[in-house]
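Progress narrative, work stream C.
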Amino acid sequence: MRRPLIRYGVALAALVVFVWAARYAMIPAPGADRSPLVSGSAEGRFTLPAPGLMGAGASLGLLLLGGWLAGRVAACLGLAKVTGYLILGLVIGPHALGLVAQDQIGYLTLINDLAVSLIALTAGAEIRAEFLRQSWRQVLLTALGVVSLVALASFLLMLFALPAMGVTPARLFPPGLLTVALAAVVATIATSNSPAIVIALIAELRASGPMTRLALSVTVCKDMLLVVLFSIVLTLAAAAIDRSAAADQEARPASVAAAASPAGTPSGADPIHEGAQGVALPLLGRLLGSIVMGAFVGLLMAAYMHWIGAHVPIVLVFACLGIALTSEALHLETLLVAVTAGMLMANAFEESSEALFESVEDLSLPVYCVFFAVAGLRVDLGALGSIWHWALLAVGIRLAAVWVAVRAAFALTSPIPAPARRWLWTA
Protein backbone atom coordinates (compact mmCIF):
# COMPACT_ATOMS: atom_id res chain seq x y z
CA MET A 1 0.00 0.00 0.00
CA ARG A 2 2.91 2.34 0.69
CA ARG A 3 4.16 2.37 -2.92
CA PRO A 4 0.80 3.38 -4.49
CA LEU A 5 0.31 5.96 -1.75
CA ILE A 6 3.69 7.56 -2.51
CA ARG A 7 3.06 7.44 -6.25
CA TYR A 8 -0.38 9.05 -6.08
CA GLY A 9 0.72 11.53 -3.42
CA VAL A 10 3.72 12.71 -5.45
CA ALA A 11 1.59 13.01 -8.59
CA LEU A 12 -1.03 15.07 -6.73
CA ALA A 13 1.59 17.34 -5.18
CA ALA A 14 3.28 17.82 -8.57
CA LEU A 15 -0.06 18.74 -10.15
CA VAL A 16 -0.82 21.32 -7.45
CA VAL A 17 2.67 22.84 -7.70
CA PHE A 18 2.47 22.98 -11.49
CA VAL A 19 -0.91 24.73 -11.47
CA TRP A 20 0.25 27.12 -8.75
CA ALA A 21 3.36 28.01 -10.76
CA ALA A 22 1.30 28.51 -13.91
CA ARG A 23 -1.15 30.79 -12.11
CA TYR A 24 1.73 32.72 -10.53
CA ALA A 25 3.38 33.21 -13.93
CA MET A 26 0.13 34.62 -15.35
CA ILE A 27 -0.07 37.39 -12.71
CA PRO A 28 0.84 40.65 -14.52
CA ALA A 29 3.78 42.64 -13.22
CA PRO A 30 3.11 45.93 -11.41
CA GLY A 31 2.32 48.63 -13.95
CA ALA A 32 1.70 46.17 -16.78
CA ASP A 33 -1.22 46.56 -19.15
CA ARG A 34 -4.18 44.62 -17.73
CA SER A 35 -6.63 45.46 -20.53
CA PRO A 36 -8.29 42.46 -22.24
CA LEU A 37 -6.62 41.11 -25.34
CA VAL A 38 -8.35 42.07 -28.56
CA SER A 39 -7.82 41.22 -32.17
CA GLY A 40 -9.37 42.18 -35.49
CA SER A 41 -10.50 45.50 -36.86
CA ALA A 42 -12.04 48.27 -34.84
CA GLU A 43 -15.50 47.47 -36.21
CA GLY A 44 -15.54 43.73 -35.63
CA ARG A 45 -12.81 43.09 -33.13
CA PHE A 46 -12.72 39.96 -31.03
CA THR A 47 -12.51 40.18 -27.24
CA LEU A 48 -11.53 37.25 -25.06
CA PRO A 49 -14.12 36.02 -22.55
CA ALA A 50 -14.08 37.11 -18.94
CA PRO A 51 -11.06 35.87 -16.95
CA GLY A 52 -13.30 33.89 -14.62
CA LEU A 53 -14.83 31.98 -17.53
CA MET A 54 -11.42 31.26 -19.05
CA GLY A 55 -10.03 30.05 -15.73
CA ALA A 56 -13.09 27.89 -15.00
CA GLY A 57 -12.17 25.52 -17.83
CA ALA A 58 -8.69 24.99 -16.41
CA SER A 59 -10.16 24.67 -12.92
CA LEU A 60 -12.53 21.96 -14.14
CA GLY A 61 -9.57 19.99 -15.46
CA LEU A 62 -7.78 20.47 -12.14
CA LEU A 63 -10.83 19.21 -10.24
CA LEU A 64 -11.14 16.14 -12.45
CA LEU A 65 -7.49 15.07 -12.46
CA GLY A 66 -6.74 16.28 -8.94
CA GLY A 67 -9.94 14.73 -7.61
CA TRP A 68 -9.06 11.36 -9.11
CA LEU A 69 -5.58 11.47 -7.54
CA ALA A 70 -6.92 12.71 -4.19
CA GLY A 71 -9.48 9.91 -4.15
CA ARG A 72 -6.73 7.37 -4.75
CA VAL A 73 -4.65 8.84 -1.93
CA ALA A 74 -7.64 8.67 0.43
CA ALA A 75 -8.32 5.05 -0.57
CA CYS A 76 -4.68 4.13 0.15
CA LEU A 77 -5.12 5.64 3.62
CA GLY A 78 -8.24 3.55 4.25
CA LEU A 79 -10.64 6.49 3.83
CA ALA A 80 -13.54 6.96 1.45
CA LYS A 81 -12.61 8.54 -1.87
CA VAL A 82 -15.19 11.24 -1.18
CA THR A 83 -12.94 12.44 1.64
CA GLY A 84 -10.15 13.03 -0.85
CA TYR A 85 -12.43 14.99 -3.19
CA LEU A 86 -13.60 17.26 -0.36
CA ILE A 87 -10.10 17.87 1.01
CA LEU A 88 -8.84 18.72 -2.48
CA GLY A 89 -11.55 21.37 -2.81
CA LEU A 90 -10.64 22.82 0.58
CA VAL A 91 -6.92 22.99 -0.24
CA ILE A 92 -7.09 24.48 -3.74
CA GLY A 93 -10.09 26.73 -3.05
CA PRO A 94 -10.14 30.53 -2.86
CA HIS A 95 -9.78 30.47 0.93
CA ALA A 96 -6.57 28.38 0.92
CA LEU A 97 -4.11 28.10 -2.01
CA GLY A 98 -6.42 30.04 -4.32
CA LEU A 99 -5.82 27.83 -7.37
CA VAL A 100 -9.54 28.17 -8.06
CA ALA A 101 -10.61 31.80 -7.75
CA GLN A 102 -13.90 32.92 -6.25
CA ASP A 103 -15.18 34.26 -9.59
CA GLN A 104 -14.65 30.84 -11.20
CA ILE A 105 -16.92 28.96 -8.81
CA GLY A 106 -20.01 30.55 -10.34
CA TYR A 107 -19.08 29.16 -13.77
CA LEU A 108 -18.75 25.68 -12.26
CA THR A 109 -22.33 25.82 -10.95
CA LEU A 110 -23.77 24.39 -14.17
CA ILE A 111 -21.44 21.40 -13.96
CA ASN A 112 -22.46 21.01 -10.32
CA ASP A 113 -26.17 21.10 -11.25
CA LEU A 114 -25.52 18.45 -13.88
CA ALA A 115 -23.90 16.31 -11.19
CA VAL A 116 -26.89 16.79 -8.87
CA SER A 117 -29.28 15.60 -11.61
CA LEU A 118 -27.17 12.54 -12.37
CA ILE A 119 -26.78 11.62 -8.70
CA ALA A 120 -30.51 12.07 -8.04
CA LEU A 121 -31.32 9.94 -11.09
CA THR A 122 -29.14 7.20 -9.59
CA ALA A 123 -30.88 7.57 -6.24
CA GLY A 124 -34.28 7.15 -7.84
CA ALA A 125 -33.15 4.05 -9.69
CA GLU A 126 -32.12 2.40 -6.41
CA ILE A 127 -35.58 2.83 -4.83
CA ARG A 128 -37.81 -0.09 -5.72
CA ALA A 129 -41.58 -0.04 -5.42
CA GLU A 130 -41.67 -3.52 -3.89
CA PHE A 131 -39.29 -2.49 -1.12
CA LEU A 132 -41.31 0.67 -0.39
CA ARG A 133 -44.52 -1.36 -0.11
CA GLN A 134 -42.90 -3.56 2.52
CA SER A 135 -40.95 -0.92 4.43
CA TRP A 136 -42.84 2.34 3.93
CA ARG A 137 -43.64 2.59 7.65
CA GLN A 138 -39.97 2.30 8.65
CA VAL A 139 -38.91 4.77 5.96
CA LEU A 140 -41.53 7.37 6.86
CA LEU A 141 -41.15 7.12 10.65
CA THR A 142 -37.36 7.25 10.45
CA ALA A 143 -37.38 10.24 8.12
CA LEU A 144 -39.96 12.10 10.22
CA GLY A 145 -38.10 11.31 13.44
CA VAL A 146 -34.73 12.46 12.11
CA VAL A 147 -36.13 15.67 10.63
CA SER A 148 -38.12 16.54 13.75
CA LEU A 149 -35.49 15.76 16.38
CA VAL A 150 -32.49 17.17 14.50
CA ALA A 151 -34.38 20.34 13.60
CA LEU A 152 -35.51 20.83 17.20
CA ALA A 153 -32.05 20.21 18.67
CA SER A 154 -30.37 22.49 16.12
CA PHE A 155 -32.98 25.18 16.69
CA LEU A 156 -32.41 25.20 20.45
CA LEU A 157 -28.65 25.36 19.93
CA MET A 158 -28.95 28.28 17.50
CA LEU A 159 -31.08 30.24 19.98
CA PHE A 160 -27.95 30.43 22.14
CA ALA A 161 -25.29 30.38 19.41
CA LEU A 162 -26.55 33.24 17.24
CA PRO A 163 -26.54 35.87 20.03
CA ALA A 164 -23.22 34.51 21.33
CA MET A 165 -21.65 34.90 17.87
CA GLY A 166 -23.00 38.43 17.54
CA VAL A 167 -25.27 37.60 14.61
CA THR A 168 -28.39 38.76 16.46
CA PRO A 169 -28.89 41.02 19.50
CA ALA A 170 -27.58 39.47 22.72
CA ARG A 171 -30.89 38.67 24.39
CA LEU A 172 -31.17 35.06 25.45
CA PHE A 173 -34.52 35.01 27.24
CA PRO A 174 -36.94 35.62 25.80
CA PRO A 175 -35.21 35.42 22.39
CA GLY A 176 -36.00 38.14 19.91
CA LEU A 177 -38.11 37.54 16.83
CA LEU A 178 -35.07 37.96 14.58
CA THR A 179 -33.13 35.32 16.55
CA VAL A 180 -36.03 32.86 16.34
CA ALA A 181 -36.39 33.39 12.59
CA LEU A 182 -32.70 32.94 11.82
CA ALA A 183 -32.41 29.97 14.20
CA ALA A 184 -35.26 28.23 12.38
CA VAL A 185 -33.58 28.75 8.99
CA VAL A 186 -30.18 27.52 10.22
CA ALA A 187 -31.76 24.51 11.96
CA THR A 188 -33.56 23.50 8.77
CA ILE A 189 -30.34 23.72 6.77
CA ALA A 190 -28.49 21.73 9.44
CA THR A 191 -31.07 18.96 9.17
CA SER A 192 -30.48 18.34 5.48
CA ASN A 193 -27.97 15.99 3.92
CA SER A 194 -27.67 15.16 0.25
CA PRO A 195 -28.26 11.67 -1.17
CA ALA A 196 -25.02 12.26 -3.07
CA ILE A 197 -22.82 11.09 -0.20
CA VAL A 198 -24.94 7.96 0.30
CA ILE A 199 -24.89 7.15 -3.42
CA ALA A 200 -21.13 7.76 -3.63
CA LEU A 201 -20.37 5.42 -0.73
CA ILE A 202 -22.75 2.75 -2.03
CA ALA A 203 -21.07 2.89 -5.44
CA GLU A 204 -17.56 2.80 -3.95
CA LEU A 205 -18.28 -0.07 -1.58
CA ARG A 206 -20.56 -1.85 -4.08
CA ALA A 207 -23.01 -2.31 -1.24
CA SER A 208 -26.43 -3.89 -1.67
CA GLY A 209 -29.10 -5.31 0.57
CA PRO A 210 -31.86 -4.18 2.94
CA MET A 211 -29.70 -1.67 4.82
CA THR A 212 -28.56 0.00 1.58
CA ARG A 213 -32.10 0.32 0.26
CA LEU A 214 -33.42 1.53 3.62
CA ALA A 215 -30.66 4.13 4.02
CA LEU A 216 -31.20 5.52 0.53
CA SER A 217 -35.00 5.52 0.84
CA VAL A 218 -34.85 7.35 4.19
CA THR A 219 -32.39 9.91 2.80
CA VAL A 220 -34.53 10.68 -0.24
CA CYS A 221 -37.75 10.78 1.83
CA LYS A 222 -36.08 13.11 4.32
CA ASP A 223 -34.99 15.45 1.54
CA MET A 224 -38.54 15.56 0.19
CA LEU A 225 -39.80 16.51 3.66
CA LEU A 226 -37.11 19.17 3.92
CA VAL A 227 -38.16 20.72 0.62
CA VAL A 228 -41.57 21.35 2.18
CA LEU A 229 -40.17 22.38 5.56
CA PHE A 230 -37.56 24.73 4.13
CA SER A 231 -40.09 26.50 1.90
CA ILE A 232 -42.40 27.07 4.87
CA VAL A 233 -39.63 28.12 7.26
CA LEU A 234 -38.01 30.47 4.76
CA THR A 235 -41.31 32.18 3.98
CA LEU A 236 -42.27 32.59 7.64
CA ALA A 237 -38.74 33.69 8.58
CA ALA A 238 -38.79 36.40 5.92
CA ALA A 239 -42.15 37.56 7.25
CA ALA A 240 -40.83 37.50 10.82
CA ILE A 241 -37.83 39.61 9.82
CA ASP A 242 -40.17 42.12 8.17
CA ARG A 243 -42.27 42.19 11.33
CA SER A 244 -39.15 42.70 13.46
CA ALA A 245 -38.11 45.58 11.22
CA ALA A 246 -41.59 47.07 11.52
CA ALA A 247 -41.40 46.83 15.32
CA ASP A 248 -38.06 48.64 15.26
CA GLN A 249 -39.59 51.39 13.17
CA GLU A 250 -42.46 51.79 15.61
CA ALA A 251 -39.92 52.32 18.38
CA ARG A 252 -38.35 55.22 16.49
CA PRO A 253 -39.71 58.76 16.34
CA ALA A 254 -42.69 59.07 14.03
CA SER A 255 -40.87 61.13 11.38
CA VAL A 256 -37.96 58.68 11.18
CA ALA A 257 -40.24 55.63 11.05
CA ALA A 258 -42.34 57.15 8.27
CA ALA A 259 -39.27 57.87 6.20
CA ALA A 260 -37.84 54.38 6.73
CA SER A 261 -41.02 52.36 6.12
CA PRO A 262 -41.44 50.94 2.60
CA ALA A 263 -44.04 52.61 0.45
CA GLY A 264 -47.32 50.80 0.05
CA THR A 265 -47.04 48.68 3.21
CA PRO A 266 -50.37 48.58 5.08
CA SER A 267 -49.93 49.72 8.64
CA GLY A 268 -52.12 46.97 10.09
CA ALA A 269 -50.78 44.10 7.98
CA ASP A 270 -49.24 41.08 9.71
CA PRO A 271 -46.38 39.77 7.55
CA ILE A 272 -46.29 36.38 9.29
CA HIS A 273 -50.01 35.76 8.73
CA GLU A 274 -49.75 36.84 5.10
CA GLY A 275 -46.66 34.66 4.60
CA ALA A 276 -48.42 31.58 6.02
CA GLN A 277 -51.37 32.13 3.70
CA GLY A 278 -49.20 32.66 0.63
CA VAL A 279 -46.88 29.65 0.93
CA ALA A 280 -49.28 26.69 0.62
CA LEU A 281 -50.43 26.92 -3.00
CA PRO A 282 -47.02 27.84 -4.54
CA LEU A 283 -45.38 25.02 -2.56
CA LEU A 284 -47.99 22.49 -3.64
CA GLY A 285 -47.65 23.59 -7.25
CA ARG A 286 -43.87 23.33 -7.05
CA LEU A 287 -43.96 19.79 -5.67
CA LEU A 288 -46.63 18.51 -8.05
CA GLY A 289 -44.94 20.23 -10.97
CA SER A 290 -41.65 18.55 -10.08
CA ILE A 291 -43.28 15.12 -9.94
CA VAL A 292 -45.09 15.63 -13.25
CA MET A 293 -41.91 16.91 -14.88
CA GLY A 294 -39.97 13.93 -13.54
CA ALA A 295 -42.58 11.49 -14.85
CA PHE A 296 -42.44 13.15 -18.28
CA VAL A 297 -38.64 12.96 -18.38
CA GLY A 298 -38.72 9.33 -17.25
CA LEU A 299 -41.21 8.36 -19.96
CA LEU A 300 -39.22 10.25 -22.59
CA MET A 301 -35.93 8.60 -21.63
CA ALA A 302 -37.54 5.15 -21.37
CA ALA A 303 -39.03 5.58 -24.86
CA TYR A 304 -35.64 6.58 -26.23
CA MET A 305 -33.96 3.56 -24.67
CA HIS A 306 -36.67 1.24 -26.02
CA TRP A 307 -36.81 2.53 -29.60
CA ILE A 308 -33.28 3.87 -30.20
CA GLY A 309 -30.86 3.10 -27.37
CA ALA A 310 -27.79 4.55 -29.11
CA HIS A 311 -25.15 6.97 -27.78
CA VAL A 312 -26.50 6.48 -24.27
CA PRO A 313 -23.78 8.40 -22.33
CA ILE A 314 -24.19 11.50 -24.51
CA VAL A 315 -27.98 11.37 -24.27
CA LEU A 316 -27.74 10.88 -20.51
CA VAL A 317 -25.53 13.94 -20.05
CA PHE A 318 -27.86 16.11 -22.14
CA ALA A 319 -30.92 14.77 -20.31
CA CYS A 320 -29.44 15.60 -16.91
CA LEU A 321 -28.38 19.02 -18.17
CA GLY A 322 -31.92 19.57 -19.44
CA ILE A 323 -33.36 18.55 -16.07
CA ALA A 324 -31.12 21.06 -14.28
CA LEU A 325 -31.81 23.97 -16.64
CA THR A 326 -35.55 23.32 -16.97
CA SER A 327 -36.01 22.93 -13.22
CA GLU A 328 -34.26 26.24 -12.62
CA ALA A 329 -36.29 28.02 -15.30
CA LEU A 330 -39.63 26.66 -14.03
CA HIS A 331 -38.70 26.98 -10.33
CA LEU A 332 -38.98 23.23 -9.76
CA GLU A 333 -36.97 20.96 -7.47
CA THR A 334 -34.13 19.37 -9.47
CA LEU A 335 -33.74 16.61 -6.92
CA LEU A 336 -37.41 15.63 -7.00
CA VAL A 337 -37.57 15.76 -10.82
CA ALA A 338 -34.56 13.47 -11.25
CA VAL A 339 -35.55 11.07 -8.45
CA THR A 340 -39.04 10.69 -9.95
CA ALA A 341 -37.59 10.01 -13.39
CA GLY A 342 -35.18 7.42 -12.01
CA MET A 343 -37.87 5.65 -9.98
CA LEU A 344 -40.24 5.49 -12.95
CA MET A 345 -37.63 4.05 -15.30
CA ALA A 346 -36.26 1.54 -12.78
CA ASN A 347 -39.67 0.22 -11.71
CA ALA A 348 -41.85 0.51 -14.83
CA PHE A 349 -39.27 0.07 -17.61
CA GLU A 350 -36.56 -1.98 -15.93
CA GLU A 351 -35.37 -3.99 -18.94
CA SER A 352 -35.14 -1.11 -21.40
CA SER A 353 -33.51 1.20 -18.83
CA GLU A 354 -30.80 -1.22 -17.70
CA ALA A 355 -28.24 0.04 -20.24
CA LEU A 356 -28.91 3.64 -19.21
CA PHE A 357 -28.16 3.00 -15.55
CA GLU A 358 -25.00 1.13 -16.52
CA SER A 359 -23.92 4.33 -18.28
CA VAL A 360 -24.70 6.26 -15.10
CA GLU A 361 -22.21 4.06 -13.24
CA ASP A 362 -19.59 4.70 -15.94
CA LEU A 363 -20.04 8.47 -15.55
CA SER A 364 -20.07 8.42 -11.75
CA LEU A 365 -16.33 8.92 -11.15
CA PRO A 366 -15.93 12.34 -12.86
CA VAL A 367 -19.30 13.42 -11.49
CA TYR A 368 -18.32 12.68 -7.89
CA CYS A 369 -14.90 14.30 -8.35
CA VAL A 370 -16.45 17.58 -9.49
CA PHE A 371 -19.46 17.58 -7.17
CA PHE A 372 -17.62 17.02 -3.90
CA ALA A 373 -14.59 19.10 -4.87
CA VAL A 374 -16.88 22.05 -5.63
CA ALA A 375 -18.49 21.52 -2.22
CA GLY A 376 -15.03 21.84 -0.69
CA LEU A 377 -14.32 24.99 -2.72
CA ARG A 378 -17.31 26.72 -1.14
CA VAL A 379 -16.17 26.24 2.45
CA ASP A 380 -14.95 29.54 3.91
CA LEU A 381 -12.03 28.45 6.06
CA GLY A 382 -11.74 31.89 7.65
CA ALA A 383 -15.34 31.85 8.83
CA LEU A 384 -15.00 28.23 9.94
CA GLY A 385 -11.93 29.13 11.98
CA SER A 386 -13.86 31.78 13.90
CA ILE A 387 -16.84 29.55 14.78
CA TRP A 388 -15.22 26.10 14.78
CA HIS A 389 -16.30 25.37 18.36
CA TRP A 390 -19.95 26.08 17.56
CA ALA A 391 -19.69 24.01 14.38
CA LEU A 392 -18.18 21.10 16.31
CA LEU A 393 -20.92 21.32 18.93
CA ALA A 394 -23.59 21.41 16.22
CA VAL A 395 -22.14 18.29 14.58
CA GLY A 396 -22.09 16.44 17.90
CA ILE A 397 -25.68 17.40 18.74
CA ARG A 398 -26.82 16.44 15.25
CA LEU A 399 -25.19 13.00 15.47
CA ALA A 400 -26.78 12.36 18.86
CA ALA A 401 -30.21 13.48 17.62
CA VAL A 402 -29.97 11.25 14.54
CA TRP A 403 -28.99 8.24 16.67
CA VAL A 404 -31.90 8.77 19.07
CA ALA A 405 -34.40 9.34 16.24
CA VAL A 406 -33.35 6.22 14.32
CA ARG A 407 -33.43 4.02 17.43
CA ALA A 408 -36.87 5.36 18.36
CA ALA A 409 -38.22 4.73 14.85
CA PHE A 410 -36.95 1.15 14.92
CA ALA A 411 -38.63 0.59 18.30
CA LEU A 412 -41.99 1.62 16.81
CA THR A 413 -41.79 -0.53 13.67
CA SER A 414 -41.27 -4.16 12.77
CA PRO A 415 -37.87 -5.74 13.44
CA ILE A 416 -35.10 -5.12 10.92
CA PRO A 417 -31.74 -6.85 10.37
CA ALA A 418 -29.13 -6.24 13.07
CA PRO A 419 -26.59 -4.44 10.81
CA ALA A 420 -29.21 -1.90 9.75
CA ARG A 421 -30.36 -1.40 13.33
CA ARG A 422 -26.78 -0.80 14.45
CA TRP A 423 -25.36 1.33 11.62
CA LEU A 424 -28.21 3.02 9.74
CA TRP A 425 -27.87 6.21 11.78
CA THR A 426 -24.46 6.81 10.18
CA ALA A 427 -26.08 7.15 6.76
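Work stream C, second folded protein:
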Amino acid sequence: MELLKNKYFISCVLLFTVFHLWQDFFSTTPFLSNYLDDLLCLPIVLSGVLAVQRYFSAHSQRFVLPTSHIVFSFVFIAVIFEGILPAISAKYTQDFYDIFAYATGGFFFSVFINQAGD
Protein backbone atom coordinates (compact mmCIF):
# COMPACT_ATOMS: atom_id res chain seq x y z
CA MET A 1 0.00 0.00 0.00
CA GLU A 2 2.80 2.37 -0.94
CA LEU A 3 0.26 4.53 -2.72
CA LEU A 4 -1.32 5.55 0.57
CA LYS A 5 2.08 7.00 1.55
CA ASN A 6 2.20 9.19 -1.58
CA LYS A 7 2.81 12.79 -0.50
CA TYR A 8 0.31 14.15 -3.02
CA PHE A 9 -2.44 11.77 -1.92
CA ILE A 10 -1.76 12.57 1.73
CA SER A 11 -1.80 16.30 0.91
CA CYS A 12 -5.20 15.98 -0.79
CA VAL A 13 -6.70 14.08 2.15
CA LEU A 14 -5.23 16.49 4.70
CA LEU A 15 -6.41 19.52 2.74
CA PHE A 16 -9.91 18.06 2.47
CA THR A 17 -10.01 17.21 6.19
CA VAL A 18 -8.57 20.49 7.44
CA PHE A 19 -10.84 22.51 5.17
CA HIS A 20 -13.97 20.75 6.40
CA LEU A 21 -12.93 21.08 10.04
CA TRP A 22 -12.15 24.76 9.41
CA GLN A 23 -15.60 25.26 7.84
CA ASP A 24 -17.24 23.95 10.99
CA PHE A 25 -15.73 26.73 13.09
CA PHE A 26 -14.88 29.61 10.76
CA SER A 27 -16.20 31.14 7.59
CA THR A 28 -14.46 30.39 4.32
CA THR A 29 -14.35 31.96 0.92
CA PRO A 30 -17.17 31.04 -1.45
CA PHE A 31 -14.60 30.00 -4.06
CA LEU A 32 -13.09 27.32 -1.79
CA SER A 33 -16.49 26.25 -0.53
CA ASN A 34 -17.74 25.79 -4.08
CA TYR A 35 -14.77 24.18 -5.80
CA LEU A 36 -12.26 22.58 -3.43
CA ASP A 37 -14.26 19.36 -2.95
CA ASP A 38 -14.67 19.03 -6.71
CA LEU A 39 -10.95 19.58 -7.25
CA LEU A 40 -9.99 16.95 -4.67
CA CYS A 41 -12.68 14.42 -5.65
CA LEU A 42 -10.86 12.51 -8.39
CA PRO A 43 -7.40 12.46 -6.76
CA ILE A 44 -8.87 10.96 -3.58
CA VAL A 45 -11.36 8.58 -5.20
CA LEU A 46 -9.00 7.37 -7.91
CA SER A 47 -6.22 6.84 -5.36
CA GLY A 48 -8.56 4.49 -3.53
CA VAL A 49 -9.41 2.73 -6.78
CA LEU A 50 -5.72 2.41 -7.65
CA ALA A 51 -4.86 1.03 -4.21
CA VAL A 52 -7.61 -1.61 -4.48
CA GLN A 53 -6.53 -2.55 -8.01
CA ARG A 54 -2.91 -2.90 -6.94
CA TYR A 55 -3.77 -5.02 -3.92
CA PHE A 56 -6.53 -7.29 -5.22
CA SER A 57 -6.11 -7.44 -8.97
CA ALA A 58 -2.69 -6.51 -10.24
CA HIS A 59 -0.75 -7.66 -7.15
CA SER A 60 1.88 -5.12 -8.14
CA GLN A 61 2.81 -1.63 -6.95
CA ARG A 62 3.88 -0.88 -10.52
CA PHE A 63 0.29 -1.00 -11.84
CA VAL A 64 -1.11 2.36 -12.96
CA LEU A 65 -4.66 3.20 -14.00
CA PRO A 66 -4.96 3.55 -17.76
CA THR A 67 -5.74 7.04 -19.02
CA SER A 68 -9.04 5.73 -20.35
CA HIS A 69 -10.12 4.84 -16.79
CA ILE A 70 -9.24 8.32 -15.55
CA VAL A 71 -11.14 9.96 -18.42
CA PHE A 72 -14.13 7.66 -17.87
CA SER A 73 -14.15 8.54 -14.15
CA PHE A 74 -14.07 12.25 -14.98
CA VAL A 75 -16.91 11.95 -17.49
CA PHE A 76 -18.97 9.74 -15.15
CA ILE A 77 -18.63 12.12 -12.19
CA ALA A 78 -19.33 15.17 -14.37
CA VAL A 79 -22.42 13.64 -15.98
CA ILE A 80 -23.86 12.44 -12.67
CA PHE A 81 -23.17 15.55 -10.58
CA GLU A 82 -23.49 18.27 -13.22
CA GLY A 83 -26.06 16.71 -15.53
CA ILE A 84 -28.35 14.08 -14.05
CA LEU A 85 -28.67 15.13 -10.40
CA PRO A 86 -29.44 18.81 -11.16
CA ALA A 87 -32.04 17.67 -13.70
CA ILE A 88 -33.92 15.50 -11.21
CA SER A 89 -33.47 17.38 -7.93
CA ALA A 90 -33.58 21.04 -6.94
CA LYS A 91 -31.07 20.20 -4.20
CA TYR A 92 -28.29 20.09 -6.82
CA THR A 93 -27.14 22.91 -9.08
CA GLN A 94 -25.37 22.67 -12.38
CA ASP A 95 -22.05 24.53 -12.44
CA PHE A 96 -19.73 24.17 -15.39
CA TYR A 97 -16.79 25.40 -13.31
CA ASP A 98 -17.20 22.18 -11.32
CA ILE A 99 -16.45 20.26 -14.51
CA PHE A 100 -13.21 22.22 -14.86
CA ALA A 101 -12.37 21.37 -11.23
CA TYR A 102 -13.03 17.65 -11.86
CA ALA A 103 -10.81 17.77 -14.97
CA THR A 104 -8.03 19.53 -13.08
CA GLY A 105 -8.23 16.96 -10.29
CA GLY A 106 -8.10 14.11 -12.80
CA PHE A 107 -5.07 15.67 -14.48
CA PHE A 108 -3.39 16.15 -11.08
CA PHE A 109 -4.03 12.48 -10.26
CA SER A 110 -2.63 11.26 -13.56
CA VAL A 111 0.55 13.36 -13.32
CA PHE A 112 1.41 13.21 -9.62
CA ILE A 113 -0.29 10.18 -8.06
CA ASN A 114 -0.83 7.57 -10.79
CA GLN A 115 2.83 6.56 -10.91
CA ALA A 116 4.37 3.10 -10.85
CA GLY A 117 5.57 2.28 -7.35
CA ASP A 118 8.66 0.33 -6.41
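The chain has one domain: 2-113. No further action is required on this item.
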